[in-house]
Write a structure and sequence with these properties.
single chain; alpha/beta; Rossmann fold; Dihydrodipicolinate Reductase, domain 2; Alpha-Beta Plaits; 3 domains; 15 helices; binds NADP nicotinamide-adenine-dinucleotide phosphate; binds L-homoserine
């Protein structure tokens, strides 16, 4: 039955995602009111600069730069906070919860960093927090992990969780665009964070992985415990060599149980080209979740951008309007109190590796490198030195693929390799997921 009393909401932030939410609320008003059981009324908007002209801003709506206008409006029940970063988003969120308002947000940095205390504050005040859009944009992965897969013990979560870096890798390889040009394009398309360093250095994906890991395994993983590497270390040559070897390089986020210990990493990874995950291109994301009952499930779709992200935010608004959030949020709070698992020490991670060096093109260089690898029990699977990569500067690009070895062995070898005078510039090593 439909209730004619509207749900009054406020939007804090009217940028890429906020304007997308207003757009969906306007274009889908009738169907949304049916799904929600009552009309959804956008009553106030708060931004940083009220003088900007804005597409999709409903006529006659109150726009201000002061969140107190929302805090002090007793008609507003739900605040949709779409301001990025920690400050002042954190203070805003606390003031809304303390004022007895429920909150929906897409801010993964905030949920990662202050989720625990914010959830506690919400619980103390009898309020809720919806955060479906905080991980993997339009893919409903939070509800999948917390609700749809409730019948499972989750065994692993693996995927691509950052749209910007996937877009950059795709455009560089397919169109030979420069890293800098594609990053600018990703910013113009609204995919990148206000500080795009967080997209390309793996921080954003690691924050999302940490959120998913906590929901799936009741285990809080701080960024320091995640083996983390961004795409900013890659060159076009790495993408091309990987492709010639039958792989695609993707920024792969992994949380996997080994017995009672959890492997957690975010790294550009060589993935066999015929695997689904390797074929996810552009700003799309993919999340493969393995449960003990269901087996492997895979969710893919747009991981960033205005409408895909707004799609997840609007789903949270509808869930709240129907009363579902009030139930699922309680369930999440209870689940987070389950016993946690321990994190596998980084040194124990065992994978094959891709190693790329720029070396002096002279005798004994390969022998020196192989000697160090050998002394650390790292067995070489193949060596590749492309003649065309040799430059007039007398250096050459050397790519070594290893057999299975541990992160610890590689770290030990790294320390010695760094001392070799024949190695020039930055070397990189990437794991291989066969
Ligand atoms: P955005 O385009 O930069 O928009 C941010 C909005 O916040 C702007 O309207 C800005 O106002 C407003 N704002 C900034 N500081 C403010 C302050 N102190 N007080 C009031 N308003 C303030 O960012 P976005 O891409 O929409 O992202 C919003 C959130 O969603 C972020 O947490 C982001 O990580 C997350 N997210 C984004 C995507 C995506 O694809 N873009 C996907 C998933 C999650 P002005 O317009 O006046 O500057
Ligand atoms: N900057 C983020 C990304 C937005 O590129 O994935 C979606 O969370």
């Amino acid at each position: 039955m439909k209730n004619e009393t509207p749900l009054n909401i406020a939007l804090i932030g009217f940028g890429t995602v906020g304007s997308g939410v207003a757009r969906i609320l306007a274009t889908q008003a009738e169907t949304l009111s049916i799904k929600a059981g009552r009309p959804i009324n956008l009553r106030r908007v708060v931004v940083r600069d009220a003088s900007k002209s804005r597409e999709y801003l409903p006529a006659g709506i109150s726009v201000s730069t002061d969140v107190a206008d929302v805090v002090n409006d007793p008609e507003i029940q739900l605040v949709v906070q779409l301001v990025g970063g920690i400050d002042p988003a954190h203070e805003y969120m606390k003031s809304f919860l303390a004022a007895g308002k429920d909150v929906v947000t897409a801010n993964k940095a905030l949920i990662y960093q202050h989720g625990e205390s914010l959830f506690q504050l919400a619980a103390t005040n009898g309020r809720t927090i919806g955060f479906e859009a905080a991980v993997a944009g339009g893919i409903p992965i939070i509800s999948a992990v917390t609700q749809a897969l409730a019948g499972n013990r989750i065994l692993s979560i693996e995927g691509i969780l950052n749209g910007t870096s996937n877009f950059i890798l795709t455009q560089m390889l397919d169109h030979e665009q420069t890293y800098e040009d594609v990053l600018k394009e990703a910013q113009a398309l609204g995919y990148a964070e206000a500080d795009p360093a967080m997209d390309v250095d793996g921080t954003d994906a690691a924050q999302k992985l940490s959120i998913l890991t906590e929901l799936a395994f009741a285990t809080r993983v701080p960024l320091e415990s995640i083996v983390r590497q961004g795409i900013d270390c890659l060159e076009l040559l790495d993408l091309q060599v990987a492709q010639e070897l039958g792989y695609k390089i993707k920024l792969l986020a992994t949380s996997r149980l080994h017995g009672e210990r959890l492997e957690v990493s975010v790294q550009p990874t060589l993935i066999r080209g015929d695997r689904t995950i390797a074929q996810i291109d552009g700003a799309d994301n993919i999340v493969a979740v393995e449960g003990d009952a269901v087996g492997m499930t895979t969710f893919s779709g747009a991981g960033a951008g205005q409408l895909p992200t707004a799609s997840a935010v609007v789903a949270d608004i509808v869930d709240y309007a129907t009363g579902r959030t009030q139930l699922t949020f309680q369930s999440i709070l209870r689940s987070l109190k389950q016993p946690s698992v321990s994190i596998q020490p980084q040194e124990e991670l065992s994978r094959r590796y891709y190693l790329r060096f720029t070396v002096d093109d002279r005798a004994h260089v390969l022998a020196d490198i192989a000697d160090i690898l050998g002394r650390h029990e790292i067995s070489i699977s193949s060596v590749r030195q492309d003649e065309s990569s040799e430059s007039s500067s007398g250096t050459a690009r050397l790519v070594i693929m290893t057999h299975h070895t541990t992160e610890g062995s590689l770290r030990g070898a790294d320390a010695e390799l760094k001392k070799l005078a024949c190695i020039q510039g930055q070397s990189i090593r990437l794991p291989v997921a066969d």
